[in-house]
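Appendix B, example 12.
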Amino acid sequence: MKSRISINLTFENLYKNQKITILKQKFRAEIAAVLEAIVR
């Protein structure tokens, strides 16, 4: 039982990390677009 709980926690952490990574990538892409617009 304990091992199942720890596996679930690991999956939750991986899921959260993935979400954070995706948000960071979107954020970077937006910043890059804004910077390009300013430079032009």
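The radius of gyration is 17 Å. The mean pLDDT is 91.
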